[in-house]
Amino acid sequence: MKLSLGLPKGSLQESTFDLFLKAGFAISVSGRSYIPRIDDEDLDGVLIRAQEISRYVEEGVLDIGLTGLDWILENDSKVEEVANLVYGKQGFRPVRWVLAVPDDSPIQKVADLEGKRIATEVVNLTKKYLKKKGVSAHVEFSWGATEVKVPQLVDAIVELTETGSSLRAHNLRVIDTLLESTTRLIANRDSLRDEWKRGKINQIAMLLKGALAAEAKVGVKMNVPAASLEMVTALLPALRKPTVSKLSEEDWYAVETILDEKVFRSLVPKLKEAGAEGIIEYPLNKVIP
């Protein structure tokens, strides 16, 4: 049995490969090849644009794939969303499709776009948005470099942004957000009815979610004298409770837990003050609840 997997080529490729590696799957690709090597004999991967993946999964050409919610909606694809994976090219946050105009444009609100021209890669999403707002405007497909088309070629654009830096660099002002999108692991509905494929898909989903859950967390170990144990453990948040075990040295304990990295950096002085010694921080690949 094999499971066919669609992986996004382009801006999400490297971050997707990194996520799979932390989940336990090493993926590599050479040169301009579109067929990656995966160290799991049950998986056959292919690199294609994220814009196309949901269509191929819906049609059963692929069993599963990773693509954005935006492209699922743009293609109106009938697929099953197995996992919501919040990661992107520049960090672990959703991306946004925004309606933007030049800083000096007289357009101030969506209603001002009546009869105007808009360029975007997500034509269907934009048309649905305008219809909901009761605005009639001409929406044209953009093949790229959408930011440079205003105001000479179009009056406004609907463009993808993660940090907003590109829009600011092109002196563009956001009027509204059409959609917040995150990466989704999607599956073909017939594939999920197959017992073996469903089990494999669920395994991949669990490991990917575990890898993401570990991104902002660290493992922490420390030695604590018995007299300080209660004070130290009271300071430590944990998934359940800190693990406490006796050391060979009398009246000393080893304390271990998992917590947010940002929380830990502020806790270190407090832990030292409470009596902890030999404090160690280590990275995590996966956290499986």
Task: Give the SSE layout.
Layout: E1 3-9, H1 13-23, E2 27-28, E3 37-38, E4 43-49, H2 50-59, E5 64-68, H3 69-75, E6 80-85, E7 95-102, E8 117-120, H4 123-133, E9 138-141, E10 156-161, H5 165-169, E11 172-181, E12 183-187, H6 189-193, H7 195-213, E13 217-225, H8 229-235, E14 243-246, E15 252-260, H9 261-274, E16 277-283
Parallel strand pairs: 1-4, 1-5, 8-9, 8-10
Antiparallel strand pairs: 2-3, 5-12, 6-12, 7-10, 7-11, 13-15, 13-16, 14-15
Helix pairs in contact: 1-7
Model description:
The structure is a single chain. With 289 residues, the protein is of the alpha/beta class. It has three domains: 3-92 and 183-213, D-Maltodextrin-Binding Protein, domain 2, CATH 3.40.190; 95-180, 3-Layer(aba) Sandwich (D-Maltodextrin-Binding Protein, domain 2); 217-283, 2-Layer Sandwich (Alpha-Beta Plaits). It is 31% helix and 33% strand. The protein has helices at 13-23, 50-59, 69-75, 123-133, 165-169, 189-193, 195-213, 229-235, 261-274, and strands at residues 3-9, 27-28, 37-38, 43-49, 64-68, 80-85, 95-102, 117-120, 138-141, 156-161, 172-181, 183-187, 217-225, 243-246, 252-260, 277-283. Strands 4-1-5-12-6 form a five-stranded mixed sheet, with helices on both faces. A five-stranded mixed sheet has the order 9-8-10-7-11. β8, α4 and β9 form a beta-alpha-beta unit. α1 packs across α7. The protein starts with a strand and ends in a 6-residue tail after the last strand. The mean pLDDT is 93.
